[in-house]
Write a structure and sequence with these properties.
Blueprint lengths: L1 H13 L7 H31 L7 H24 L7 H29 L5 H21 L4 H20 L4 H49 L10 H18 L3 E9 L1 H8 L1 H17 L5 E7 L2 E6 L5 H16 L2 E3 L2 E3 L2 E9 L6 H18 L4 E3 L2 H19 L2 H4 E10 L4 E13 L3 E3 L1 H11 L2 H16 L7 E5 L2 H5 L1 H13 L7 E6 H6 L1 H12 L4 E7 L6 H5 L5 E4 L11 H16 L3 E5 L4 H9 L4 E3 L7 E2 H10 L1
Parallel strand pairs: 6-7, 9-11, 11-12, 12-13, 13-14, 14-15, 15-16
Antiparallel strand pairs: 1-3, 1-6, 2-3, 4-5, 8-9, 8-16, 8-17, 9-10
Helix pairs in contact: 2-3, 2-4, 2-5, 3-4, 4-5, 4-6, 5-6, 5-7, 6-7, 9-10, 13-15, 16-18, 18-20
Length: 643
Amino acid sequence: MARYAEFLNNLTRGFAIDMDNPVLLKAQYKAFSKQLPLMYFILLVNSWILTSTHMQSAPRWLVWDYPIGLTLICVIRFVFWFRTRNIEPTIDEARKALRRTNLIAGPIAMSFTIWAIMLFPYGDAYAQSHVAFYMGITVIGCIFCLMHLRPAALTTAAVVNISFVIFFASTGKPTFIATSVNVALVSATMLVILHVYYRDFTSLVDAQVHTEALSNDNLRLANMDSLTMLPNRRKFFTELYAFCLKAHSTGTRFAVGILDLDGFKPVNDLYGHSVGDKLLFAAGQRLQNLCDEETHLARLGGDEFALIITRAMDNDQLLAFGTTLCEALRQPFLIADTTIQIAASMGLVTYPDMAANATDLFEHADYALYQGKRNNRSMVSVFSTSHSNRIHLDANIEQALRKADFEQELEVYFQPIININTEQIVAFEALARWQSPVLGSVSPAQFIPIAERTGIINQQTRILLAKALAAAAKWPDHIRLSFNLSTHDLSSPNIIHQIVKIIDEADFDPRQLDLEITETAVMHDIDQAKWATEQIRQLGCGITLDDFGTGYSSLSQLHALSLSKIKIDRSFVTGIEKNPASLKIVKSLLALSRDMGLDCIIEGVETAEEMAVIREIGGTMVQGYIYSPPIPESAARLWIDHH
């Protein structure tokens, strides 16, 4: 009983279309739509050939009216399938077309079968044999053409073959009985082949679906950042190029932003990479929650994220949106029961007014970010015409730097550092000045960042240090020399060895030399910075931490560097008499320096009001325009003589 039920179930399934497999439906439709016009062509040609052999013997309605009616039906179906053979259907269209074909397969097959049987009594034995041949060979052709729609093929085969066998077996003529047996056997064999082919066809479609799913998974993984589960750098640039093409064709405007976390590296150093990874994930999720379908977020790598903003916004709206993102990241994160606070800086650029292609968009957004971090850290910077002009100027400066003869073109200027209690010169800070034969006088604020980016700074450092030491050798013994080292100068043992050699060979007491390093240089590679400062300290030189308070280093890390001085950045000094927050910071830093046993230099003092506040809170060493701007070597000697 169970086997009988299973047989009926399989039989029913064989005559039904699998409507729950949309991929198979579309595959059937595509293959089927190319074969069905051929089926109707064969059916019509064979039918009219059969009609032509019965023109003289059969009545008019049977050789003209009936076939014409069948022809109209076939032509309509032929035109439908011929016109749609190269069209990509929707799932619903494919489902309707296949269902309709399956429903009319039986009636059409029965109509042609009845017509052929009705022609049988007319004509001689040759004409009757033609009817048998027509029915047998045509049904085989139809089965072949319908093989991708198994229910329709089975229905057609069942209608024609059952009718054929019953009719011709009932004629009592051995030839026709044998023919009916032959046709039945061939049709049965064809149906077995059809079943096997259809099974292989569906298996192939399923395999393609599986392969496509794997390919899509691999593509998704290849375009996804495994840490934050956001689109990765590859996906970002793919989308960026696509949006550029679309915006170019439609004349629309969109924006690109690059966002960098401020203070992320100290989190890694202090809490470990596991906490850092969790922080990156949490930051990505926080950003994602603020983005909609018109804002595409990706992680570029490290602590950098990127956005493509397709919503129409003017610069003020973009600035407000970027500020919202940065403010969201300033809110504390609770990671592994630890409250962590960071900040973020962001650069924004718009297409097409500020960048004409994907490469420029990314570079300009990155440039806006870089400038923002230099001038307004933890803020949003929108790329502007001034930035564009600066890029062109930077390119000219870079070209001039690469061709420069620094021995001839670089000059050292000196700015005095004064003890305000004694009004005596404590030291001079050496500052670079560049007189380019192409560009004229170029500000150090312009050429030093470019020299650092291109690696030219190391060559400049060696030349400037040698010149500064030569000038300082002529000063009184109590006046110290302060000289700046860049991040690049500290990054290589080979460069440090060269600097040590220059100091060692100079006619200047190394104990009177202070080398200034920035928090950025220290945090770039704390271990390398520690090693480098130890090499310098062995000569007797002092180490001054420049721009103290602007970075994100921890006190424990700084204490390990064997510092001798700290220098408070000018950003805290400007307008200190009107800024209570700056006043508190400077007071705290002065107290910290005393607790750590370090001298403290306050730079950037320009007004009497600022000086009065510095005196009041206990500052002793000051550097700034209130005493003197940077001056050439000859003026420095005069300054010493008169002070």
